[in-house]
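ok trying this again, last paste got cut off
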Amino acid sequence: MVGQPKPLKRGAVIFDRDGVLNEDTGYAYRPDQIVWIAGAKAAVKAVNAAGLYAFVATNQSGVARGMFGERDVQNLHAWMNRELAAAGAHIDAFAYSPYHPQAQVEAYRRETLCRKPGPDMLLRLMADHGVDPARAVMVGDKDRDIQAARAAGIEGVLFEGGDLAAFLNPVIARLVR
């Protein structure tokens, strides 16, 4: 007797936040601090339309520095998803690391693999959603994003500015099978 075929795992695009989806203005935690990167909403919409997961994995050391709290990060991510929804797009899951080894807030002072360049945020997102690592990519604007991708066993692509949707279209085409 032949068993049921295994369901196909989905691919994913994991976005860094600051410098990829929005301009890196330094420790953004309020909607009025967010300036979307050109083509960012269209890029997320294209990922959604391709049947891929859209995730965000972001270091948020401002929490560790006592500049804002985790609730502020969560509220900003909810706002970002509402903004994306107005453009017909969505992020499937957000992951963030509030830790930093030299944190001012003791509860967040630690070395951890969930802070990029560690892979744990990426690995957790992929495990929680059943992602095929061969069809996953991390889009970042810093070397630590690419290092995290490599450590997680996925492709990393460096976004150096411009229109994010135009940059990402060939990447999405490779991930869709």
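PB: full thing came through this time. The mean pLDDT is 96.
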